[in-house]
Design brief:
By secondary structure, the chain is of the alpha/beta class. It contains six helices and four strands.
Length: about 170
């Protein structure tokens, strides 16, 4: 994968914002993890949203290419299994793999289908899967030298749970 900024048409303001708020802090963290100032920490999560076909996935690949990180494109449907407890184990394994392959970018496409608003009609499996995912994500956020970034993409931002939106500041 060698996606460059020039492969993405238009979006100059968005590209500049992503470079200054995501790429440069990540490059600094990946090369100076031992001397990182907490005020210079890159975000642990970024939400890319827009209409279908606007280049969210291409932008995620360009970010990974620019910071020389492993790009893990997580297929949400793989996490959902019919066996009790397997979905939670798979979600935990995704974060473990991300740590082992660090620096890495974990890309969640169509995040709204997986981490939508929680309510009482959710099944036990869906609720516990969301809880495990959020707990693992919190582990990334509390570790200042973690070299894992969650990139999420959606075209329905309004359907994403507010707990997830708080973890995706950009």
């Amino acid at each position: 994968m060698n996606t460059k900024w020039s492969d993405i048409g238009g979006c100059k303001e968005i590209l500049n914002s992503i470079q200054s708020n995501v790429v440069y802090p990540l490059l600094y963290l990946f090369h100076h993890a031992d001397a990182i100032n907490p005020l210079l920490m890159p975000p642990k999560g970024v939400l890319l949203y827009g209409p279908p076909g606007c280049g969210k996935t291409l932008l995620a690949k360009a970010i990974a290419s620019q910071v020389h990180a492993n790009f893990l494109n997580m297929d949400i449907s793989i996490l959902k299994t019919k066996w009790y407890g397997e979905s939670e184990k798979l979600a935990q394994a995704v974060f473990t793999l991300s740590h082992k392959l660090a620096p890495s970018i974990l890309f969640l496409d169509e995040v709204d289908s997986f981490l939508s608003q929680r309510d009482s009609s959710d099944s036990n499996t869906a609720s516990s899967l969301k809880a495990i995912f959020l707990q693992s994500w919190d582990g990334l956020m509390t570790n200042p030298t973690s070299q894992v970034l969650i990139l999420a993409a959606t075209n329905r931002k309004q359907d994403i749970d507010t707990a997830i939106l708080r973890r995706l500041p950009l």
